[in-house]
Every structure is written in C-alpha cells, then in structure tokens.
Amino acid sequence: MTQMFNSFLQHLDEQGLDPKTIANYKASWNKFSKWLLQVDPDLKEPGAAIQRDIANYKRHMQAAGGRGGKPATESTMHLTFVHLNKIFRYFHQQGMIPTNPVDPIQKPKAARRKPKWHTRNEQNAIMREVRRSKSKKDYAIFTVFFHVGLRVHELCDLLRDELVMNQRSGSVYVRGKGFRDRELPLNADARYALESYLADREEGGSPYVFTSERSSKMSVRGVQHIVEKYRKRTGIKNLTCHSMRHTFGHELATGNPPVPLDQVAMLMGHFKETGDPNIQMTMIYTTPGLKDLASAVESISWT
Residues in domain Core-binding (CB) (predicted)? Predict the structure, then answer.
C-alpha cells in the first residue's frame, strides 16, 4: 500500500465504515494499481494516474478485465469506478494531486439493484425451521437479524451488560466508531428470544451475548455457517445475514404506515460524514420487488 492510499484507509476507518466496505475499497485499488503498474512500470505512485489512465482502465475492464479474462460485469465496473472516484477525490481534497482524474470520465452504467429482502412467507418459513431445531441461540440470532437489523459483526460484538430488557421495553447499545454508536430499541419478539437464550447461559461467563462451544465470542464466520445451514434446509437461496438485515430495513420503509427514512437510516446505522442520517443510502429499502410490482398491477384489475 502506498502512503497516499494508506491515508485514505485511515480516513475511512475514522469515518467508522464497515470493515467489509473498507476491504472492498482495498480490492478495487489493488486491481487498479496492479494493472497501472504493469502498463507503466516507471510509475512509482498509482495515485499519480491521469485521466487517460482511468479511461484506458475502463476500456481494459470492458474488454477483459474480469475474472478469467472475461469482461467485467456492469455491477463490478460501476462499483469499481465509485470506489476510484471517492479515492481520487480524497487525494485531490487533501492537496495530494491537482485534479480528480476520474471525475471527467463517463461512469459505467449502474446495474439495477435487485431486492435482497424476504417476503413474509419466507420469513415465516425460515423462523419455523429455526424453531424446529430447538436451538435457542439460533432462534435468538435470527430474531435479532429480522427485528433489530444488525450487521453480522455488530451481532458478534454485542455485550450482555449493554442489553436492557424490561417487561414492556428494551434496548441494546451498538458500538461503532466516532458518531456511529447507536442505541436501538428491542421489540417484544427480540426481548423474548434473547431472554430465553440467555436464561440458559451461565452467570459470570462470557461478556458477549453470543458465544460458541469453542470461544467466548461468536465469530462472523460462525454466524454465517449457522445461516448457511438454514439456507440449505429451507431452500431459500438468497438467505444470508445481510438479506435478513435488508428485510428489517424494507419492512420499516414500506410498512403501513411507513417509518420515515431518517428514522430508518438511524436504525440501520447509515450516517453521513457529518453524522446526519444518510437518507440516500437508505432509499434502497424502498425499491419494489417483482411481487410488489405484481400486487400494484393486480390492484387495478377489472376482474
């Protein structure tokens, strides 16, 4: 990593971005840097790229820049240029380069985002299968995803002494970086699932809410493995930790009545650099799925 890019990574870290998001920025930068240094071995700093370099890289991706020498997909190209634009804009804002070479380049079209949430029937099928397993821990994990909307690493980081659960209310404190900490309410379903699971846990044990047989703290991979188990059992192919979090956001944004998007953004942990709710990011949860569109058309049927 070059000094310029390391500075950008530190900037992302200070913003409190999800580690997976930061890893995606690294991947995009590494691929671009590797290509650029192969094309121009005399260039010592990829951050010194000019507009022509960016345009050539776009043509490279369109021709054979993807896996196996195949052209990159629309979504990959679009995301790569979103990353490069933000990276070079940062370099420019910090006075490291005179201009942002990505800005004048026509951006690749964004592929239409496909909804990743689950219908009520799918949610019911998933939770019935989880209940059938008789695992209180699995039931609590799935309930927290569907009713609190945590990221998988946030679920793993939950601390027992930061859970507040009363008969009619409850909350959990989710630690982020800087202004990204947030306190989330726990509804009756989440409280019941957590209380039932924790009642079987030994007092004075691990400080974390979710543990495994081998560790005092569940790992991200451990949670993903549990979810994959139920994906196979239910046959719901798009079941992931993220799809359940996405379902939480969608249910809020499209409910009757819908929850205001600034509130959804705060519950989901979507914030701007200023600390204000990022409503633009949260609008993805309002994107209608095929069943939503079918219901809309069916509502005006004459028969």
Answer: 1-92
